[in-house]
Amino acid sequence: MNLVALGASDLRVTPVCLGTMTFGEQVAEADAHAILDRAVERGVNFIDTAEMYSFPTRKETYGGTEALIGRWLRKNPSVRGKVVIATKVAGPSRGMPWVREGLGMTGADIVASCEGSLRRLQTDVIDLYQIHWPERSVPAFGAMYYDPSTERSKTPILEQLQALDGLVRQGKVRHIGLSNETPYGVHEFVRLAEQHGLARIATVQNAYCLLNRGVENGLDETMHRLRVSLLAYSPLAMGLLTGKYDQGGLTGEQVPAEARLKKFDEVRQRRWGRPEALAGARRYNALARQHGLTPTRMALAFCYTKWQVASTIIGVTSLAQLDENLDAWGTTLPAELLAECDRIRWELRDPAV
Question: Where in this chain does the record put each NADP-dependent oxidoreductase domain (predicted)?
Fold first, then answer.
């Protein structure tokens, strides 16, 4: 895998990134360290985490994934200079008082969260520091429509950007990014950075997969014109696009007990648990098999080869899953298969948006 540039920054990363939100919840520490070791052995240099992980988030595991990665880095000091570490400051609480009190996310909150992440990761600098979700009210995590009446913003984007810029100037953060953002948010962060001479966002981390191609509804043009890179998360739609739920539904006996959509009610209650999402996944998975591909390989190859995507974030719970996901790199999907994907999308739209 050749390295790719992230936005206008000097960060150079592999086009496949190891996501870690399962570490410390579904994946025990020893197994997580083995996955991290294997990923590096196979050439992956990009690791993504967040202060709120493990997921599903709860008070007892808040910050646990970062701490787990920190212990891995301490055991492998030579690795730190070879890997790009990305993490995220949680947005407004969303019912998580153990993250912070109140509805907002002030500049001081951003700085305090960064300091906590640095301690847990046992590193002097975070390579890419991202806002996990907007401080303002936006349609995200399954919400489809913007509703001005729900606006409860407490902190202007400029204040957030100034806090992030301060962390960059202090050498605690190399580059900054956003997540779960809209075209407006990306434009505003870039506009204010250019107007005030502040740190410029390099990336946006949004969901992107066959069941959720919302990025292609305008955000892709925004990112292209403003030189901001997409980090695509949930390329397998929380497992729907692996085929594991095709026969037994989300909670059937055929589904592995540890499968996230079966095990966690919180996950099922989001966009991935919609009946329309499962129906759509079955269509795409059948298409993959018709072309002699596993559903996993087709879904990942779709993301790996799209011009919109700089790096695809894969989340795994075993070495076997890691290898399967990395082995899909280099797969080229024929034009007729891609055309059929577009036809399915035209019919079903984005059932997991």
Answer: 16-344
CATH classification of 4-239+305-328 is 3.90.230.10, yes or no? Answer: no
Strands of the chain (E only): list them.
4-5, 12-13, 16-19, 46-48, 84-89, 126-131, 173-179, 201-207, 229-233, 309-315
pTM of the shown model: 0.95
> Is it true that the peptide bond before 15 is cis, omega within 30 degrees of 0?
no
Q: Which residues are catalytic?
A: 53
Query: Which of 40-54, 135-149, 171-185, 314-328 shows the lowest per-residue confidence on average (mean pLDDT)?
Result: 135-149
Q: What is the pLDDT of residues 330-339, one digit of tens each?
A: 999 999 999 9
Contact 51, 66 (CB under 8 A): yes
CA nearest neighbour of 69 among 86, 90, 89, 44? 86
> Per residue in 10-45, pLDDT tens?
999 999 999 999 999 999 999 999 999 999 999 999
